[in-house]
């Protein structure tokens, strides 16, 4: 897992290669499960890659299948940005990246996610020290 540095970010972000399943919801309904991949993770959110375009500012629930863990971790958040992925300067059809701002984590999953995040922070500690 590689540490990504950016002046705009408030929290350390790590590369992550994990399957995800997500669905949009409102007060009345939870939508269909859609598959994707997590690209990176921070204490504030997750970036996912998917074949489906997502609506911005929409509430979302994401199950992240962290490497080495038996169960997924469920988070809830909001889609804060989305864009199509380019390859060789051309837009790829049906390939999007989306930034999900984290709002809540299921109580049962909170410790698992925090432990995973902290383990990778410690593994990469030398990159934070100047």
Structure, briefly:
With 130 residues, the protein is mainly beta.
- Per DSSP, what share of the residues sits in E-state strands of 2 or more residues? over 45%
Structural class: mainly beta
- Per CATH, the class reads Mainly Beta
The number of domains: 1
The low-confidence parts are none
Estimate percent helicity: 10-25%
Secondary structure layout plus pairing:
Blueprint: E1 3-4, E2 13-24, E3 34-42, E4 45-50, E5 59-65, E6 73-87, E7 90-105, H1 107-123
Antiparallel strand pairs: 1-2, 2-3, 2-5, 3-4, 4-7, 5-6, 6-7
Write up this protein.
The structure is a single chain. It contains one helix and seven strands. A six-stranded antiparallel beta barrel has the order 2-3-4-7-6-5. A hairpin with a 2-residue loop joins strand 3 and strand 4. The radius of gyration is 15 Å and the shape is globular. The longest helix is centred in the C-terminal third of the chain and has 17 residues. It has a single domain, classed as Thrombin, subunit H (Beta Barrel), CATH 2.40.10. With 130 residues, the chain is mainly β.
């Amino acid at each position: 897992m590689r540490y990504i540095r950016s002046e705009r970010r408030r929290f350390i972000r790590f590369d992550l290669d994990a399957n995800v399943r997500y669905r949009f919801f409102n007060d009345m309904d939870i939508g269909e499960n859609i598959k994707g991949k997590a690209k990176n993770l921070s204490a504030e959110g997750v970036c996912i890659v998917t074949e489906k375009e997502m609506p911005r500012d929409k509430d979302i629930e994401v199950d992240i299948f962290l490497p080495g863990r038996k169960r997924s971790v469920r988070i809830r958040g909001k889609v804060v940005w989305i864009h199509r992925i380019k390859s060789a300067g051309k837009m790829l059809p049906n390939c999007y990246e989306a930034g999900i701002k984290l709002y809540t984590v299921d109580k049962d999953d909170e410790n698992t996610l925090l432990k995973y995040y902290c383990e990778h922070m410690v593994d990469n500690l030398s990159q934070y020290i100047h």
